[in-house]
Amino acid sequence: MTEYFDKVDQNDRVIGRVSRDEAHKKGLCHRAVHIFFQNLKGNWILQKRSAFKDVDPLLWTTSCSGHVDEGESYAEAAVRESEEELGVNISSNDLIEIFRCNPCDCTGMEFVRVYLSKRKFEHFYPNQKEIEEIKSFEFEQMVQKSFSEKALFSCSFLHILPFVALKMIYSKNDS
After folding, report:
1. pLDDT of 161
2. Nearest C-alpha neighbor of 72 from the set 4, 140, 145
3. Beta pairing class for 30-38 and 44-49
4. Pairing relationship of beta strands 64-67 and 30-38 according to DSSP bridges
5. Closest CA to 48 of 124, 147, 139, 113
6. Which CATH class is domain 4-174?
7. CA 133 to chain centre
8. Any idea where the domains of the chain sit in the sequence?
């Protein structure tokens, strides 16, 4: 089944419809979401992408991520992807938008919104077609590992994480 996305201009305004294949082959701007979850201990959950993924197989990335489907909002996509990939039910009210990213090569020409779930979970139920494994990290450990072992992480994760880290540092200082 062909997936369709909203094709967007350089200002993230919808200008048409595009298939997944065409968006990726031609480098057309489209949308995606990344969601970070924490467990009950406050550790950050990362997923190792499935070997069957066409982009960044077997690399570590955010808790879950995915494209925004045609006609769907960023928040709706984040809720859907959380259920599809991790088997957790959340609502858009559970999401804190922590960062927006403009299209670049690392994101596959995607406008990306990065969210943190306000809800913490004890158990996750990874979709084995999407995810090889999940693992929890203390925030500092996650950042340090991404710098010391870059080859283990997806390009989009390495692009997003420094901005998320800055946001978390500033949020701590504001408290």
Report:
1. 96
2. 4
3. antiparallel
4. antiparallel
5. 124
6. alpha beta
7. 16
8. 4-174
